[in-house]
Every structure is written in C-alpha cells, then in structure tokens.
Design brief:
The protein has helices spanning 21-35, 51-63, 79-88, 115-121, 140-146, 165-168, 178-183, 212-220, 223-233, 246-258, 272-282, 320-328, 350-353, 355-364, 369-377, 412-417, 436-450, 456-468, 486-507, and strands at residues 40-44, 69-73, 95-97, 110-114, 129-132, 152-157, 171-174, 190-194, 205-206, 209-210, 238-242, 263-265, 291-294, 307-312, 342-346, 425-427, 430-433. The strands form 4 sheets. A 7-stranded parallel β-sheet has the order 3-4-2-5-6-1-7. A 6-stranded parallel β-sheet has the order 8-15-14-11-13-12, covered by helices on one side. The longest helix has 22 residues, at 486-507. α8 runs parallel beside α10. The protein has 3 domains: 2-176, Rossmann fold (3-Layer(aba) Sandwich); 183-377, 3-Layer(aba) Sandwich (Rossmann fold), CATH 3.40.50; 412-507, no CATH class. By secondary structure, the protein is α/β, with parallel strands linked by helices. The radius of gyration is 24 Å and the shape is globular.
C-alpha cells in the first residue's frame, strides 16, 4: 500500500488543468508522508485551493496503477457536483453509490459516494485509496471504517479543527495559506463592514456556545437592519446570508422579499429537487436570484465564484472553523465578472472575536491538527471597541498583521531577540521595507514566483544580501508571502538588468 505513491505520476493521459505550484507541493508532501509510513493523512487547503482537484488527482494516480479509489462526499448534494468535476478532468469511468442513480455501477474501479448513503446501506466499495472531502465533519460511518481498513486515506478540509482528528490522521499537509492564495489572485480580499450587531449579552449558552434559540431570538431583533444595510452597501452583489436557525432564515427571507429583493432559503429542510432548481438559477451570471439564505447547508463545498457578499448573522463564541467556512464562500476570485473583493457584513461581532486567530490562520495555516482543535474549543469574549485599522493602509479590522497589505506590528520581545533587525530598510532615500524581516518576506515572495523550486531559497538569500550586505537570519521555509513594494520590485529589476549586462559583457 505504501508503494502507491512512491513514484511521480504521469498525468499525460488525463485532462487535468496544469497544477499550481502549491498543488504540486501538496501532492509531493503527501507522497513523502506515505513513504514515512503515514497511512492516514490530512490535507489542509484553504477555500479556493482546489481540494476537489487535489482529491481527484490522487484518485487518478491510484487508478492508473490499477488500484481502486473511493471519493467520499460530505453530503448527497455534493455527489453530482463532484461527478461533474471528475467528468471535466477525463475521469468519466466512475460509478456513484446512491440508490437509483443512473451512474450506479459497482464494477467501476472509481466510486463516488456520500457518507449518508454508505451509512444507510452499510456498504463500502473495495478501495485501495479513500479520499474524504470535508473531513473535519467526522461522520461515525467513515471514522470507524478508516481505522480498520488497509486503504490509504486522505482527508481534505479547509478547517481541520474538530476534536479527535489527530487520532484519525497521523500527518498534516498544509497545502497553502489564504494569504498566498490572495496574493496570487486565487482569492480576493475581504472588505469588512461592522454593521448593526445582535446584542448577545446574557444570552443562553450550551457547552460554551450560544444556543440556537438564543441566537435566533437576538438575531431576529435586527433583521430590519440586516436588510436595510445590505441595500445600502451591497445590493449590486450576489449574496449569501447565514442565519442561526431555519426559522431565523425564513424571517430574513420574508423581509428581503418584502423589500423587493428576490431571495430564497437553502437549508436542510429544502427538498432535493428544489435545491437543484435554486442552485441552477443562482449560478447564472445574470440571475435575478440575488440572495440565498442558509444555516449551514451553504457553508461547505458550495462553489459559486461570483458571490460578492457574505452576511454573517450567526453569532459564535467558539467555532472559528464555522466562521472561516462561512466567510470563505465569498472569497473565490471571479475574473469573468471583474470581482475585486468580497463584502462581509458582520452583524454578530464574530470578526472581532476571532480576529487574532483568524489572522494567524490567514497567514500561516496550521502547524498541527491538535492546534486546530484547541482553536475551536476556546471561548472568545466580546470586544465592544471599534475595530482598529492598519497603521499602514487603514484596512479594518487589524490585529498584529494586516490581511490587506501585509504590514506587521513587531512585538517588543522580537525586537529584543533580534536587535538591529527592526529598523526601516533604506537604499538612499527610498524605503524598501519596514524592517529586515519585511524585506526578507518580499524577496522570498519574489523568488517563489520567478525561480525554479530548487533555486528559490538561494535566489532570495542572494537578493537579501545584495540589498542589505548581510545574509538573512530568517527561515525561507516558514516565511509567508507578502505584497512586494514598488521600490523593492524596482530594485530587483535593476539588479536583474545589471546581471544580464554583466553576463553579456563577459561573453562578448
């Protein structure tokens, strides 16, 4: 089984789009994990990183070696979506494990199934590799099965935060970060509006989280503001609204419709045939259906890139993962529609409660699965203060590092630890960076975009030395990508030109 991923696969026979660098790296890290003896591995891939793409490439690699593969969806509603994507990549030879489905074929070496179907039928198709989408949900059906099967198991999740994942998966592959995806244009920046907020003071809790009934009651009191502020700020944007309960969603839908806005509910109570009609209409670029309202049904696996606004009306105290899933529905880029950002209407105070931790995840991802579990257990306190803006660009909200321009506030302890490193980096009268660390982040970003993988670290180190006179004291591997200032980019370009001229002169 370990030999399944030993050699680099030949993808010539498939019609997969050219993988991005981070997708190649994730796949390579996965192979290394299997070589190291990890049977069950988790890939953390932020919204927009192409989890389905990664999963189907893994399945294809197994299939071309004569193995059998199973792609496990979190919900029945995602089966046809995953099947359609598989078709687009040239993996049409697959069966679907679902009663009366026209593609039901047990003989196919590649099967797509929902965990609900497997639970009802108590049936597992034989597989050498199992890909579990939205693996943080941890349905008992598959969590028990993967501990006794010999199959290689790969979990996919943007938010692997739920308790016990570290016992199910022995290795975490951090594919990429939200910051890297934003810098590369895969995601768009989030523009936050702190709107009229539900008053959760004294609201009932259970297990540290506000109860659905309390969230519904407090949220219902401000629905008028939810609608009016959407009309004022984001009425030209296709929108997803998240409510506390189905009843809460129904009331918000009623008030949107009363205001003359075409809106619809998409919840666990929505019948499958109605869901299909709603999604087909909503996905149209020129759809009159502007607002979809949901509790959780749209928070995972929902991919409509031209969504330009998310309205958060579901107050949370603990579940950072739920908040990330909700907000992520609007962050995919949509070049065809000219989308440049996503509006987040925060009617809950969630962005302030989770800001510090969200910023860390945005730039760094997770180091370990138990780290995510701890983040989802911690109770956040309300902060009634007006959100601070970035001192460099004014973006709100701002914690230690700006999610818009990358400006980072250095802690006193860091300054003491690295004396002399925290001064502005100047060339003549031109400022290149806030400090040497900031300059190092910029040259790393440039090297990753313009050099072969094996040359990136060396390129970054030499650029840093050329500009500062010193070799860097920072790690290339743990340094994230940041926007490159115009002065740094101009400096690099001038050095590139000088290098080319020197080489031409030497060979003349």
């Amino acid at each position: 089984m370990i030999s399944l991923f030993q050699e680099a696969a030949n993808y010539d026979s498939a019609t997969f789009p050219t993988p991005r660098d981070f997708q190649n790296k994730a796949h390579a890290d996965l192979r290394q994990g299997f070589k190291a003896g990890h049977k069950n591995q988790m890939i953390m891939a932020a919204t927009g990183a192409g989890k389905t793409y990664l999963g189907l490439r893994i399945a294809h690699e197994a299939l071309v070696k004569g193995k059998r593969a199973l792609f496990l969806c979190d919900r029945t509603t995602l089966i046809n979506q995953t099947s359609a994507v598989a078709d687009s990549y040239g993996l049409s030879a697959h069966g679907i494990v679902q009663a009366n489905h026209w593609r039901r074929n047990k003989e196919m070496p590649f099967q797509i199934a929902s965990v609900q179907t497997l639970a009802m039928r108590d049936y597992w198709p034989h597989a050498d590799v199992i890909i579990v989408d939205e693996a943080h949900t941890q349905h008992k059906t598959w969590t028990e099965y993967i501990m006794k099967t010999d199959a290689a198991v790969i979990g996919l999740s943007a938010t692997p935060f739920s308790p016990g994942l570290g016992k199910l998966f022995s290795n975490l592959v951090n594919a990429t970060t939200m910051n890297d995806l934003t810098v590369s244009g895969v995601l768009v920046p989030m523009r936050v509006f702190s709107c009229t907020k539900a008053n959760m003071e004294g609201a009932a809790t259970a297990g540290g989280e506000w109860t659905d009934a309390a969230a519904e009651e407090r949220g219902t009191a401000i629905i008028g503001d939810v609608v009016s502020e959407w009309i004022k700020l984001s009425s030209d944007r296709k929108t997803i609204v998240f409510g506390a309960t189905i009843k809460h969603c129904e009331e918000m839908c009623r008030q949107f419709v009363d205001a003359g806005i075409m809106a619809a509910i998409f919840t666990s109570d929505t019948k499958p045939e109605e869901r299909e009609v709603l999604l087909k209409e909503y996905k149209k670029p020129d759809s009159n259906l502007r607002v979809l309202i949901s509790v959780e049904a749209l928070a995972k696996g929902f991919d409509v890139p031209d969504v330009g606004c998310v309205v958060d009306c579901r107050p949370l105290r603990k579940s950072l993962s739920t908040a990330i899933q909700m907000w992520g529905r609007g962050l995919r880029s949509s070049p065809d529609t000219g989308k440049v950002d996503c509006h987040l209407h925060d009617h809950t105070g969630n962005i302030l409660r989770f800001l510090s931790d969200y910023t860390d995840i945005f730039f760094n991802g997770l180091d370990a699965l138990d780290m995510g579990e701890k983040l989802d257990k911690a109770i956040r306190r309300d902060d009634e203060k007006e959100p601070k803006g970035c001192p460099a660009c004014g973006y709100k909200p701002f914690a230690k590092r700006c999610m818009s321009c990358g400006h980072e506030v250095q802690s006193p302890s860091m300054v003491e630890h690295e004396p002399g490193e925290m001064r502005e980096v100047m060339i003549g009268k031109k400022k290149l960076a806030d400090d040497k660390r900031h300059l190092w982040e910029q040259v790393c970003t440039y090297a990753r975009a313009h050099s072969a993988p094996e040359k990136q670290k060396g390129r970054a180190s030499h650029l840093f030395r050329d500009m500062t006179g010193d070799w860097p004291k920072f790690s290339f591997e743990t340094t994230g990508n940041v926007p490159i200032t115009r002065n740094v980019l101009n400096m690099i370009k001038s050095k590139n030109i000088a290098f080319v001229k020197a080489r031409e002169k030497a060979t003349a």
